[in-house]
Amino acid sequence: MILIEDLWYTYPGGSEPALKGINLNIREGEFLAIVGENGAGKTTLAKHLVGLLKPQRGKVLVYGLDASKCKVSQLARLVGFVFQNPDHQLFSETVIEEISFAPKNLGVESRVEEVLRRLGLEAYRKRSPLTLSSGERRRVALASILSYNPRVLILDEPTVGQDAAQKEELASIMEELVNEGRTVVVITHDLEFVAEYVPRVVVLSRGRVVADGDPEQVLMNGSLLKSAGLLPPSLARLSLLLAERRFLEEPRLYRDLCRLAKEIARRLKLEPT
Amino acid sequence: MSLLRGFSYVKGSSFLHKLDPRSKLLLSSSIALSSILLRGLLYPSILLLALSLSLLAASGCLRRWAPTLKGLIPLALLILLVNWWFVGWAYAISMVILLLTLVCSLSIFFLTTSPDELSLALVKMKLPYELSLELSMAIRFIPTLAREAQLIVDAQRARGLDLESGFIKRLKNLIPILVPLVVNTVRRSYRVAEAMESRGFGATKKRTWLFDLRFTVKDYLTSVSSLLLLAFSALFALTA
Question: Given this model, what pLDDT does residue B2 score?
Fold first, then answer.
């Protein structure tokens, strides 16, 4: 349960506020994406949820705790933050030590073995994280947060530099976490990823929430996305084009190509051969 | 980090910005040397500090310098107290003035000289090009490093790293900050080297320059006054 009320924040030396009156309610067990162009305020907003930034105006409540009065370590127990670049946090001699770092600091139960298994890192336990490939480093960074089992997980741009297979794997890990009852927040500008996997999307533009809801509505709204500096995902654009040429009755977001193909086949009364 | 802001270049079009970096370097070092010569002499030191502060003000950089001044307060207080205790108040105050004048003279140069101008000036003063490039690149990467350090601190605090309690513990807790910082810096230096080589760095022995430095009347005037200032200070220090 995270509640954000009229949150304002200006960086020291900044001419314009990075956040201008954000209102957002994240419920337990939700899977949501915060999207927006670079500089829209996504990361600034997320940093408030772990107390790395303190609200200048407004309120941030994390499970009833007032974030402006809590230490980062106190909030981190509840909210795990996986940063964009794993190289900004990996420092240990072995993967095991890296993954045990946070639970040790926070004084909570460590679930290293379970996390190693889940992320397919068992073979690397004695390796130096710095010698791993970039995809593996990313998984170690994720593992180093999952290992202390936070109730909320924030991932900052997890899909950058990942190939299709890695993205799919990442999505299945996230879905698993959500199914276990954890809250997952993804910060991204990868709308293809959002269209395919995420059930709730919040659009930020120049420090404001300009849309919040079901991707099937938000991601089909081309003019809204354009004004936020985003482009509708290709699944949405394809469906719009097909509807325009009357291959579909109405444009809607098909979450994957398979469903779209079935719908077209149905319309064209094609039989599988 | 705010301390460093007082030494990184700010764009401008003031008299100081337009000076040849070589005459500016002479001006800065004359002020610095004079302040050392005049140390312990209260009134001349105050005069010199006033001169360098007004030069800074004329370049429009005084506001930018303020955080540096604030960052210096602990050191200034320490110098003040120690010297007051062992020598006397007049000497203590003049030592603080010496500190401020030295920092101020450095700022006069670095706030108004772009890294490109600096490296060009060094080459014109017969320093090997590689060396001057290294220096200007080091300066160029200070803000990058500062930003990166902040990201790392945030990432580790989110993993429960405590950076607030006791001195020894804090030193130990620097490891998770320093390791990624050093690793990233080394990695980046390889990347920069590759990028430079792919753009033909070091391909020819003889370099040409896009901009050239030229001494103008202003520069001669500045250089002569700087030397005069230094001479006066030396004379004053000897006779006093």
Answer: 59
pLDDT in tens, A40-77: 999 999 999 999 999 999 999 999 999 999 989 899 99
Nearest to A61 by CA among A34, A24, A32: A24
The distance of B41 to chain A (nearest Cα, Å) reads: 39
CA A95 to chain B, closest CA, distance in angstroms equals 14
Say yes or no: B152 contacts chain A, CB-CB below 8 A.
yes
ipTM value for the complex: 0.87
Q: Which of B52, B94, B88 is nearest to B76 (CA)?
A: B94
Q: Among A245-254, B17-26, B192-201, which stretch is predicted with the lowest mean pLDDT?
A: A245-254
Q: Is residue B97 pLDDT above 90, yes or no?
A: yes
Tally of residues, chain A: 273
Interchain CB distance below 8 Å, B159 and A102: yes
Minimal CA–CA distance to A134: which of A163, A177, A99, A154? Answer: A163
Taking CA atoms, what residue in A is nearest to B159? A102
Q: Does A74 touch chain B (CB under 8 A)?
A: no
Lowest mean pLDDT among A140-154, A223-237, A257-271: A257-271
**Residue B180 in contact with partner chain A when CB distance is under 8 A:** yes
Return the residue of A nearest to B176 by Cα. A91
DSSP-assigned states of every residue in A118-183: HTT-GGGTTS-GGGS-HHHHHHHHHHHHHTT--SEEEEESTTTT--HHHHHHHHHHHHHHHHTT-E
Q: What average pLDDT does the segment A255-267 reach? A: 83
Closest Cβ opposite residue B159 in set A47, A87, A101: A101
Residue B62: pLDDT band (50, 70, 90) is confident
As given in the structure block, the two tokens for residue A101 are 């770092």
User: Do A83 and B156 lie within an 8 Å CB cutoff?
Assistant: no
| A150 interfaces chain B, CB cutoff of 8 Å | no
Which of the 8 DSSP states describes residue B82? H
Taking an 8 Å cut-off on Cβ atoms, the answer to whether A90 and B152 are in contact is no
Element (H, E) at B219: helix B217-239
Q: Return the sign of the alpha-carbon dihedral for residues A86, A92, A93, A98.
A: negative
- Whether the per-residue pLDDT at B136 is higher than 60: the answer is yes
Q: Is the pTM of this model over 0.80?
A: no
| Structure-model confidence comparison of residues B173 and A123, the more confident one | A123
Tokens at A125, concatenated: 């336990």
- Find chain B residues with C-beta within 8 A of A47's C-beta: 154
- Give A10 to chain B, closest Cα distance, Å: 17
C-beta atoms of A130 and B183 within 8 A = yes
Strands A152-156, A183-188: pairing kind? parallel
